[in-house]
Design a protein that fits this description.
There is one protein chain. The protein has 253 residues and is α/β, with parallel strands linked by helices. It has ten helices and ten strands. It has helices at residues 2-14, 44-51, 68-81, 94-99, 120-123, 128-137, 145-169, 180-191, 207-214, 224-228; strands spanning 25-30, 33-37, 58-63, 84-92, 106-107, 113-115, 200-203, 219-220, 233-236, 241-244. Helix 3 (68-81) packs parallel to helix 7 and helix 6 (128-137) crosses helix 7.
Length: 253
């Protein structure tokens, strides 16, 4: 049981969750909207269904992390119901990967940010040596490392397969879950002139790229271009995050 818990903690850390996530706070914002606050966790979609009424058409989000499978379930629900999403402050991690792209219309106001991190596909590319180091850092005993490395790799592969199925179901181009690697590589150079070199790298893709390259339409990105100018990145103190734009990426076909 202890090893399973440690593996879950590692999965959470790799997904951008500092600890095992509790359920998000869900409440009615008004007659047509529900507000979601905090990390997305298993059971959140069921609680959302209980709050929903025939007049509900909008989910307001403020979430910087979450369990990938729970976020995929939430995304599927939004797509089936044809709901919109509005980012109140931040939509990062699993919120940005699975909830945001599933909505019909997506709005990012002037004081909010969309922030993607590594997808399940990219996490599954980690080598056995990298996984062993991560497990060791999480406190897994040396005699258990080999077995837990194999188990963790299997879990990451399974989650990546579920992510691929989610993308196919929602007609999201696979590149949406792969292009962060190029953004992160460019961020290494940016860190050299950035005061907080420990900041976590995120990616904020522009509305035009989301539609043209990944099939994710209906995005109102607000003053994103102005906020990222002139250097193509933005520091978000609330996330301790270095949010990069699209400048590292080639034009899509």
């Amino acid at each position: 049981m202890k090893l399973k818990l440690e593996r879950l903690i590692v999965m959470g850390i790799m997904a951008g969750i500092g600890t095992l996530a509790g359920a998000a706070q869900l409440s009615r914002a008004d007659s047509g909207a529900i507000a979601l606050r905090g990390p997305i966790a298993e059971g959140d979609v069921d609680r959302l269904r209980l709050l929903a009424t025939p007049g509900t058409t909008l989910l307001r989000v403020n979430s910087d992390a979450g369990e990938p499978l729970a976020a995929m379930q939430l995304g599927r629900y939004l797509r089936r119901q044809q709901w919109d999403v509005a980012v109140d402050t931040v939509c990062a991690g699993s919120c940005a990967l699975y909830v945001f792209p599933a909505a019909r219309h997506k709005r990012i106001p002037a004081d909010a940010v969309l922030a993607l991190q590594e997808s399940a596909f990219l996490r599954a590319q980690a080598s056995p040596a990298q996984l062993r180091r991560t497990l060791a850092d999480a406190g897994v005993a040396a005699e258990d490392l080999e077995r837990e490395t194999v188990a963790l790799a299997a879990q990451l592969t399974e989650t990546a397969a579920m992510e691929a199925a989610f993308a196919a179901e929602l007609d999201i181009a696979p590149a949406f879950y792969r292009d962060f690697a190029q953004v992160a590589a460019q961020a290494d150079g940016v860190r050299q002139r950035f005061p907080d070199q420990e900041a976590v790298v995120h990616w904020w893709p522009g509305a035009a790229r989301l539609q043209r390259c990944y099939g994710i339409a209906g995005v109102d990105e607000g003053p994103r271009a102005v906020r990222l100018a002139p250097d193509g990145y933005l520091y978000v103190p609330a996330l301790s995050a270095l949010v990069m734009g699209d400048q590292a990426l080639q034009d899509c076909p």
